[in-house]
Amino acid sequence: MSDPLVVPERVLRSRTSAKWQQFEPDVLPLWVAEMDCDLAPGVAAAIHAVIDRGDTGYAAGETLQNAHRAFAAQTWGWEPEGAELVPNVMLGVVSLLRTLLRPGAPVFTANPIYPPLVEYPRAAGFDVRQLADGIEELDAQWQKLTGDFPRAAYLLCNPQNPTGQVHSAAELEALGEVARRHGVVIIVDEIHAPLSYVPFTPVIPQIPEAFALQSASKAFNLVGLNVALLLRGPQAPPVRRAPELISAVSHVAEIAHSAAYGQTQWLADLLAALRVRREIVARFLARELPQVGFATPDATYLAWLDFSAMTTASGEPVTARRLVAEAKVALSSGRPFGRPGFLRLNFATSEEILLEALERIAAAVR
Ligand SMILES: Cc1ncc(COP(=O)(O)O)c(C=O)c1O
């Protein structure tokens, strides 16, 4: 088994994307959701072949839909039909809300949650409300919906960023039942689905009225070559495709993602390596930082850490900014996710970098 997460630090520091560029060279960056891996060999070969052919025109055909269907069948025993390509997940979510809902309609989501799932719909003029977890809470809130808007939407992130929680088939079924009763459309961001350590249940077979968005971009580290699939359940409301999004789909991304969905051995190796990193984080915290709240994630390479019971050595609350200054480690602040006091650590890196970062954090807090 090969470990895709052993790229030398010298190579990582030469990368020009956000993760390794945002901070000074003495900082270890475990923040934004990029992985410290090389491309899967089949993906690199496909992109090289694009360049050799000069194949940089418009997207065409169903290559990516077919590759995704084969991957979904093999991975989850589900064959999605009628997927449409969108330039990325978040543009897909916002365009879907625009075609399904009236301007200003309520859009519900969880707390904590990936910040753009709140910020982008809000910027598009929807009334975004973050609710506590739990089906009873959703039922109670949705009961209060007035007749002003014929439809509302619920944005679920499954697996959840930042907690790494994976919702079970039974939970999805219960959600579908309550949403149906209150006229709420379910839209699920399933971008992290291939990175699940437990069995993952796609939403559409459980809730046939739902929509889902998937992409190979997180699991295969392809955000710089972005594309996503918008999946419509067989009983979901009809939607008008936003024409400006169709021509915005990158053909090169389509080729790269089609190749990625065939790289199942690479993905298995990646998941094995991520399990090792997840275990390193869990053991280190239990031994050295037992006051930090942590629940082992079911999916993703993100650890959601509750530092609210601790301070830095200088007596300050443990914030992302203070850890950069005092530990020379960059984590993501919990504040935009809805939880100040929490920090999100990206463990998709080498064992050496991960341990060094954890040791620096332990030395800087009490
Ligand atoms: C839950 C979630 N959704 C969406 C995205 C971004 O996806 P895209 O770049 O395809 O909009 C991310 C990126 O980290 C994410 O974690």
From TrEMBL:
EC code(s) of this entry: 4.4.1.13
The entry's keywords: Lyase, Pyridoxal phosphate
GO MF assignments: cysteine-S-conjugate beta-lyase activity; pyridoxal phosphate binding
All copies of domain Aminotransferase class I/classII large, residue ranges: 93-361
CDD domains the record matches: AAT_like (cd00609)
InterPro entries, sorted: Aminotransferase_I/II_large (IPR004839), Class-II_PLP-Dep_Aminotrans (IPR051798), PyrdxlP-dep_Trfase (IPR015424), PyrdxlP-dep_Trfase_major (IPR015421), PyrdxlP-dep_Trfase_small (IPR015422)
Cofactor(s) the protein needs: pyridoxal 5'-phosphate
EC category name: lyase
Entries under Pfam families matching the protein: Aminotran_1_2
Family statement: Belongs to the class-II pyridoxal-phosphate-dependent aminotransferase family. MalY/PatB cystathionine beta-lyase subfamily.
PANTHER family, alphabetized: CYSTATHIONINE BETA-LYASE-RELATED, PROTEIN MALY
Protein name: cysteine-S-conjugate beta-lyase
Upper lineage: Bacteria, Bacillati, Actinomycetota, Actinomycetes, Micrococcales
